Amino acid sequence: MATETKPDTNTFARWVVGILLIGHGLIHMLGPFEIWGIFDIEELTGQPSFDITQAAADFLGTAWLVAFAVLLVAGIGVLAHRSWWRMWAVAGVVVSQAVIVMWWADAATGTIPNVLVVAAVVFAKRLGLRSRGP
Fold this sequence. Notes:
Elements (H helix, E strand, L loop, with lengths): L10 H17 L2 H6 L18 H26 L5 H18 L1 H4 L3 H12 L1 H4 L7
Helix pairs in contact: 1-3, 1-6, 3-4, 4-6
C-alpha cells in the first residue's frame, strides 16, 4: 500500500514570502535611479530627509543597491528551501529601513513590507518555511 508523503513546507507561504522579498528588493532599485539621476521618477523627490551633501547622498545611493541585493538573496534562499534566508532577510530589513528613514518622504511606505518580512522571519516555523539544507 502506497503512502502519501506530506510535504514539510507550505508552498503557498514560501512563494508569498519569496515574492515579497524579491519584489521589495526590486523596489529598492528606484532609490539609486532617482538619486543618481538615471531616471526622473515624478513621484519621488530624490531628496534625503536629513541635510547631507550631494556627494554623501550619491554614496548612500549604494545602500539602496545593497538592500536590493540582500533582499534578493533572501528571497532566492526562501524559495530554495535554505535555512540561511532568515539571516539575509533580517540584514536586508536593517539596510532597507535605514535608507527608508534617510529618504522618508519618498519611501515611508517601504516600512510595511519590512514589517511583513520580520513577521515572516519570526513566524517561519508556523508558516511551514522549513529548510532542506544549509
